[in-house]
Amino acid sequence: AVLVESLLVFIMVLSVHAVVWDRFSWCAVALAVQAFYVQFKWDRLLQLGEAVFQFRGAANSGFLPASMVMPLLGVVLKERCRAAGIVYFKRFGIVVASTGMLLALFLSVLAVGITKPVPTNTCILTGIAGSVIIYTMKHSLTVSEVIEVLEVLLIFVYLSMILLYLLPRCFTPGEALLVLGGVSFVLNQLIKRSLNVIEGRGDPIDFFLLVAVVGVVLLGLFFTVLFIFMDSGTWISSMFFHMMTAVLGLGVIMPWLYRLIQRNPLFWLLQFLFQTQTRLYLLVYWTFLAASACGVVFYQNTKRSSESKKHQASTITRKYFHFIVVATYVPGLIYDRQLLYIAAVLCLAVFVFLEYVRYFRIKPFGQTLRHLLSLFLDERDSGPLILTHIYLLLGMSLPVWLFPRSCAPKGTLPGAGALVPYSGVLAVGVGDTIASVFGSKMGEIKWPGTKKTFEGTMTAIFAQIIAVALILIFDSSVNLNSSYAWILASVSLVSLLEAYTTQIDNLLLPLYLQIMLMA
After folding, report:
1. Has residue 442 been placed in a domain?
2. With 80 as the cut, is the pLDDT of residue 305 above it?
3. Is residue 354 part of a domain?
4. Is the peptide bond before 448 cis (omega within 30 degrees of 0)?
5. How many domains does the chain have?
6. pLDDT tens per residue across span 251-272
7. pLDDT at residue 150 is higher than 90
8. Which residues contact 489 (CB under 8 A, 6 or more apart)?
9. CB–CB of 168/117 below 8 Å?
């Protein structure tokens, strides 16, 4: 299974390389080769329990697929913005690619360093790949860009030491690289933009995303340290939690946003949300869907109470939420992507805040949330946090957030790139859902080395092709320009990756589909 997963990642890396064919795509190929060897060192460390931190069990390290996401995103972003003539974002893509490669190299050196006996061949490969990448960075990055890349690496090192210690068994090494690498990059971008604020420069909705991500992470770190010294389950601690959340929100996050967007964030948000009648209709519709999702949670818990204390939600029951998310995102993508962008940011902040309430047992809802959400746990929620619903939201939202609007003057990219914002809907909302439902009900032929079925994967590919056809019918901005073969190949590769990966597919699949469509 690991070999097939690696083969699929190699095919996608080589596909991007064939399209781009520059020094950075060559570096991506070199990184993929050394990451393939390092992945086995990480797997061995996990099996022997010799890794530095406690990582999630029942999965391999996932180092190769995770290490290629940020470099490939940077490479395709650079190429798209170069074609559009947007120099600033072309340089930004180079920084993203260089940062991803350096973070992956750091984890490679860490794995090689703690493996006993020292793996000579892997050391040589890592040294060669590192030399090629550093040489390319030396001749491609300015001094300020090199400093920026090193800043992200420094933030990543400290953030990893803190969060992997505080949250054992929540991540595999690959997931840690993907999640903590992304958070480190966002934090560095926020610091950089806060120190270089120019009035009128930058889109306020981008600043909302940066501040929301950094704000919820800092909030979690603050309360984690605080509740080391006091019991979080008492009423006094709970009142202090809510009070300090309000103080940090109104006293730190709001002024920070005010400095970045040069206007009152709350007034701007209210004006933005109710600017048009279409937005009002979408908000009412989304409120109804949110209430429906809550209804599913309560209904399933009443079934548990009446049937058995050990009752767990089935795979099909969990996929109800995928259908609800698809129904949420598709109208937003068709009618108002900016509103969807902001709504997803606000939803992420609410989800993370509610997870803090559940994790710290904050009264009056902490214990209730623990009881309600325990029904939907699966083997991936082996740590103290429940992250699968947050990963689902991220998987659907990242293609919307990472869409290069500045490099798409007409609001959409040509060819297959027009489907980039729909990557989450196609890969997770349609593909993963259909594969799980049909595979569990009608699947008989299993893929070698996995529990996934041939029937589930083929049905998922077919369903995504139908979804692309429906998008063409209902979204007039999408024009594929006869790039159907590339779309079919991209969907097929990502669906096969879903069958073989043991990582969080809600997070990994949309990113790879986005990379392939942008290429």
Report:
1. no
2. no
3. no
4. no
5. 1
6. 888 888 888 888 888 899 999 9
7. yes
8. 15, 516
9. no
